[in-house]
Write a structure and sequence with these properties.
229 residues, TIM Barrel, eleven-stranded mixed β-sheet, globular
Length: 229
């Protein structure tokens, strides 16, 4: 059995989010997502509402409450937060604020130069070393080169590999996800994702005692990863 994690999505709590918390969860559930990260821009109320709705209805996806935070140099995401983090802090201050809540630091769309909100490149190498997860597949990125650069950054820094739909509209929900053989809790998230490593597509057929870890995007070819049992 496998479980699908979509770690980066938005509700209408953000100025540019168009989905209500309930609608986001219902769409994600209908599209096979088991755990969803709710990461509104500089807001936390939508994530809190999604968490409440999910806890009341076990048939809906489980929720990771987070926030996409505008730092002085670009955007960072905090996962497993308990309260809102103010915008405008330095990346280092933002990272410390996420850690103070016991949260995880997630770097989104690291090389997408088509967004003004992307973290400045001169900060990436140093910042990546303090991140838990680097997003190597983003559902709104138009140039796959940006994702390949993010994958290389994760390899250099030793960060875990993340993926998210970055959904703002109904049609974007569930387009990108991470597939694991266990549904992670806050306590097990890093442990379950830490041992992932990229392998060639054909490698899956020849690998013995391996479990699949996949990043998918719509009808595009799956990017596959494995980790040892």
């Amino acid at each position: 059995m496998s479980f699908r994690l979509d770690l980066h999505n938005h509700t209408n709590a953000s100025a540019d989010g168009l989905l209500s918390p309930r609608r986001l969860l219902e769409l994600a559930g209908a599209r096979g997502i088991d755990l969803i990260g709710v990461t509104d821009h500089d807001e936390f109320s939508g994530a809190e509402e999604c968490l409440r709705i999910s806890q009341e209805n076990p048939r809906l996806p489980r929720v990771v409450a987070g926030q996409e935070i505008t730092t002085s140099c670009g955007e960072l995401i905090g996962l497993y937060l308990t309260e809102r983090i103010p915008e405008g802090l330095s990346p280092e201050q933002t990272t410390a604020s996420i850690r103070a809540q016991g949260g995880l630091v997630y770097l989104p769309h690291a090389y997408d130069t088509q967004r003004r909100s992307t973290m400045g490149r001169k900060h990436l190498e140093q910042l990546a070393r303090s991140c838990d997860v680097i997003e190597v597949r983003n559902g709104r990125i138009l140039d796959p080169t940006f994702d390949r650069q993010a994958l290389a950054l994760a390899a250099r820094s030793g960060a875990l590999l993340g993926a998210g739909s970055d959904a703002h509209y109904a049609g974007e929900v569930g387009r990108v996800f991470v597939e694991l053989t266990e549904l992670p809790s806050r306590a097990t998230f890093l442990r379950l994702m830490r041992v992932a490593r990229p392998v060639p597509e054909a490698g899956l057929r020849d690998t013995v005692r391996a479990r699949a870890y996949r990043l998918r995007t719509g009808a595009n070819k799956a990017r596959r990863f494995i980790y040892p049992v």
